[in-house]
Amino acid sequence: MTNMQPSEPAFDHRWLEALAQWCSRGQEADAGLIDLYIERRLELRLHVRRQARWVEECRTEGAAVRTRTESRHEIVAATGTSPKTIAQLLSGRIDTRELHLLRPLPPPDLDAPRNWKDTVETWVDATSVGDATVLILERRAAVIRPGQWQEIHTPLLIRLEALAPGSSSLLATWNHAGLTQWAALVNECPQRRVWRPSGGDQLPVIFTSGTAGVLMHELVGHLLEGDVISDGGSPLERAEASIVGPPTLTVIDDPTRFDLPGAFSSDDEGVLAEPIHLLSGGVVCGALCDGLTASQLDRAPGRGRRAAWNQAPVPRMSNVVVPPGHTDPEALENDLKNGLVVTRLSGASVDPRSGQVILRVEQGWEIRHGRRRRALAPFELGGDVLGILRSIEPDFGDDPTPDWRLAWCLKAGLPLPTGAEAPTMLVRTMEVV
Amino acid sequence: MTEVSDPIERLHRTATSTRDMVIHTNATRWEVFAKASTLREMVFEPDPPLKISMVHETGVAVRMTGRGEAGFGAASGLEAHAARVAVEAASSSLTPLPFDPLPPSRLLGLTDVAPPRQLPGAAWASHVAEALTRGVLQASGAALLIRRLVFQEGTYAWLLATGDGFVASQHDATLSLLVELGPRDGDRLPHHEWVWVKRPEDFDPEVVAAQMCNRAILAGGPTVSRDGLFNILLHPEVGAHLLGSLSSLFLPTPEDDDPLAMLLDRNGRLGSEALTLTDDRSASDCPPVAPCDGEGLPTGRHILLDHGVPRHRLACHFEAQLYGEPTRGGARRFSYRDYPTTGIGALRVNPDPGVSPAELLQNAGRSLYLLRLVAPVVTDPANDSFRLRAQGVWLDDGAVEGFQPVVEVSGALSLMLRRTEAVGTDLAWYQTAAGFVEAPTLFITCQRVTG
């Protein structure tokens, strides 16, 4: 997938270069300066209620400076990206007396997509959602380190939050071809006769319609994030280099997939985006680290992500991608005598210490003798991470499908956009919670 | 970076420059909200480094209305440029709206509130960190230690000004601790405690350490697993999250979606006689104190539930118009960036008549004492159901029988509220997803427990 970066710079490049040189002085003075981060955001919201519609437009910008010494790790952040703000943030770390003399060109405005409101209204009107909020998010950022700088581009995102109880959010990149399917996704009517499997049942489960991506996000992505590994809480770290899944299972964290919401041109510490193989042939082979955990674990950085300018970067995945197999997904269902097929997940969580994962199933079907029978009522599936990975059948569907419901991934209170794409996969045994 | 030394004066200047720009637009009515805040977090761990984060944030928001249209724009900063960006954003977001979203000036007003609180001196945090560490070792007999201690200090100031000449402002400070407590040996999961510091000068680290250790020590020992119908006791933290999750019952709702009526018994009662809930963000002993709500309506004590009977519902002007209800106050702004919405500001349980927690535990018979949640509380008023997943200890007339690491209590929400037979006197504030809630130990009879 091509890296679709906008051609227009978000900041004055000569100003960024000058700042990088200025930060070098801090480096020389041993001020412990790590980086300076600047960010601008445009958030547009369309609220749709039965009685009214209204729009909000919010433009924010801010900057943060990180310093690190043996005795003290510090981040100081402030609203604004002006020379005055940055001079104040850097003061006490480097000589900023002449910094305010630099005059950057005013950055171009972050523009709303042309006719965004009409487009979104037309699209929402095609769905059956009653009350909803649609968010459009545009973000531009740059990281300046002593002697170097890196501009960060991320895709324009669109998020739909339906306000009906039990409804999950949808998140995608603006203009993605798959957006045309959203109305159908939203409009799926709940079945009148639904069935809930009994708690404690152990059943084979087929994850289809992209839901296997959510499963991999929890089972593999989170458990190979640097902070989880450095806390000693990842069952996958302990299993590194041993076979944890079928030999056909490869899991890649790929921020260069600009058709998925977790994409970036470089991470929020300025490391250029590159795919990282997390599992290859069923064997753990990678980890997702920010600069700090990379140095602690002796790994490569590249996944330091910030929830906003006023937050420190944390290790977090981007887009979890599972390459497809060669099996017709219908054949996977046809061969199943008794089990479940999951078509929609409303949420999921994993506890690294206990190694337990919980998946909240929103929609799916009971399978009997290869045919879909009763629709499923919302329920939860759970199990042990390593047990589930071992229980994945090696034949995957030939239908790589993005999951739009992963939406904002929330960990330690910090929400970040992430994406996933995976084919239909069969897990031989999972437990109904 | 914004120094909040004279923040209100600065916010006034922002409001003035915003007004000068708004009056050149087509707006007939408008409102400016400006805010400046500083949040400092200090993380103490047994080994260096000390981790510090300091965030200075400022911003301005504009709501304007005219010719049947309304718009909302926000921008970061307090300078003239920020004001201009916010006004332009509000202008470009103008959309036809069938009502005026700004409350009429006759509804606006101010309540007298306590003077701003002050943060303690710079040495307070390190002194308390040492004292708490020592206190935990003593109170637990060296079985527990503090793994992480986070001091959260915040100062904030906001100003609300309308085109009708109404001006309100507030300047205050907050202080809280987040403590991660773990066993000295073994790999049991750590416990987290959040403590709001009402007055630093009254904060007693030994008392707080003892309270934290009491709960952490209970969460151990021999494991017992039971199913069936039992009396339950909720630790104040569990009770706070449960009550916070019910806040939607006291907010404006479309009439055809209102679940409250379905939850009432034939006497119009939602909860038991023992349950009285108020929302009051004007009281001096609340974490958030304000002279008016996010739209300018005066704050005060709203009785939401009076001995089990619903009395008052909050409704900010915007949502009241949206749902065809009268405006009753309760508008909240999470930040300058956010549109005002109705929400609880400071939900409190009135412990009258309250029972001491020791007496509650002693007289609960064979019961389950829920110590802390292991998953968010799930309440579904529309389907009259709730679910709590928590750690708990089994008690028999106050004596501990065993610990259950994960237990689920679920059933009919209306029955659970009507079976809340007693409330304790051990009130404490907690931060919940719905807002700040002050709750005591709650005693609830005959609930379905699944091990």
Descriptive report:
The complex is a heterodimer of chains A (433) and B (451). Chain A folds into two domains: 13-180, PmbA/TldD fold, CATH 3.30.2290; 194-432, no CATH class. Chain A is 18% helix and 36% strand. Chain A has helices spanning 13-28, 83-90, 116-125, 182-187, 211-221, 226-230, 235-238, 291-297, 329-334, 385-390, and strands spanning 33-48, 53-68, 72-79, 132-145, 148-153, 157-162, 169-173, 194-195, 202-207, 251-253, 276-280, 283-284, 304-305, 314-315, 319-321, 338-351, 356-368, 371-376, 379-384, 401-402, 408-411, 414-417, 419-422, 425-432. In chain A, the strands form five sheets. In chain A, strands 1, 2, 3, 4, 5, 6 and 7 form a seven-stranded antiparallel sheet that branches. Chain A has a six-stranded mixed sheet with strand order 12-11-10-15-23-20, covered by helices on one side. A five-stranded mixed barrel of chain A has the order 9-16-17-19-24. Chain B is globular. Chain B has helices spanning 7-22, 80-92, 124-139, 205-218, 236-245, 260-263, 317-323, 357-362, 413-418; strands at 29-44, 50-66, 69-76, 95-96, 144-162, 167-183, 191-196, 228-234, 277-280, 301-306, 309-310, 331-332, 341-342, 346-349, 366-373, 378-380, 385-396, 399-411, 420-423, 428-432, 435-439, 442-450. With 451 residues, chain B is of the alpha+beta class. Chain B has a seven-stranded antiparallel sheet with strand order 4-3-2-1-5-6-7. Chain B has a six-stranded mixed sheet with strand order 11-10-9-14-21-20, covered by helices on one side. In chain B, strands 8-15-17-18-22 form a five-stranded mixed barrel. The interface between A and B is large, with 37 and 44 residues.
